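> tool_call: predict_assembly(chains=two)
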Amino acid sequence: SQQGEEDPQALSIQEGENATMNCSYKTSINNLQWYRQNSGRGLVHLILIRSNEREKHSGRLRVTLDTSKKSSSLLITASRAADTASYFCATPSGSARQLTFGSGTQLTVLP
Amino acid sequence: GAGVSQSPRYKVAKRGQDVALRCDPISGHVSLFWYQQALGQGPEFLTYFQNEAQLDKSGLPSDRFFAERPEGSVSTLKIQRTQQEDSAVYLCASTKSTGNRDYEQYFGPGTRLTVT
């Protein structure tokens, strides 16, 4: 079963604009991870934020985490056509620390 | 260095056939996961190996699904008597984590299985 929902399901913006995606989860977590998936490809890890962190930056990416609301957001600044992909949040759980993914946001950046 | 590789990339099987999907993890990664991704959905966990030991197979949807990693490196996911609902992308991931700390998982490109 999916851990939670991502919002919006689909997002279309112009190159240069910022893109914000939100993720909600259901259970308590140690960390939350964001992954990108280009069409027909595997997932690529973008960023990991720990439960004691509120905000983290990596290049054009900014992730926030609100454990009281069980939500996270991913901001991509100055988007490029190459950012077109599906974005998933994921949380590790279980003894195996397997990832439980959200349903994803399909981002389209128009040139 | 080399990432996670999977083969075949695409597989078409007739209903009732058996299939075998291969995963080569990153060298030295102890942990290996298999996930199933239906169209338009996020991946869902199938099974987990730590070295050659299959420690969690709670996500396998039926006893037609079987996975092994006999020497603690390459893993094979086998599906017997394939059904149409088995059509999905099967993703393999590896990580250096052994469960006491979370690290990113490195994913292969996946095998797209279509059962006709």
